[in-house]
Amino acid sequence: QVHLVESGGGLVQAGGSLRLSCAAAGRRLNAYGLAWFRQSPGKAREFLATLTWESRVAYYATSVRGRFTISRDSAQNTMYLQMNSLKPEDTAIYYCAADSSLRYSRRSEDYDYWGQGTQVTVSS
Q: What residues pair up with 11 in beta bridges, in sequence order?
């Protein structure tokens, strides 16, 4: 079992940047399919990006492609989400997730483990 902890959220002006971290404890992250999601009040959880640990191949949602970058650090057993050119509509709670079946899915129900979330607020 893996325990995920997100950090790096905060308040930023539109056009600014943040880097979110997802630190893992209990197991190595290369044993899982990994992804970032976000959720705004009243909305469903939204897929953002997924990453294959070994090949570092990444897939992005259309809404964030070209602005967000998913990456990982094996030594730190941590995954990251670099977010640039932030917009007010990016305001949400951001979650990292791990799938023990390594599906690299865009569906939140395919993920077994979730962090507690970190709030990102983008002001206009």
A: 121
pLDDT digits (tens, 9 = 90+) for 20-71: 999 999 999 888 999 999 999 999 999 999 988 777 789 999 999 999 999 9
Residue 114 sits at the vertex; the CA angle it makes with 98 and 70, to the nearest 5 degrees, is 55
Q: Which two tokens stand for residue 65?
A: 């492609």
Residue 29 backbone phi and psi in degrees, to 5? -70, -20
pLDDT single digits (tens) 50-64: 988 777 789 999 999
Check: CB of residue 120 under 8 Å from CB of residue 90. yes
DSSP secondary structure string for all residues of the chain? --EEEEE--EEEETT--EEEEEEEESS-GGGSEEEEEEE-TTS--EEEEEE-TTT--EEE-TTTBTTEEEEEETTTTEEEEEE-S--GGG-EEEEEEEETT----S-GGG--EE---EEEEEE-
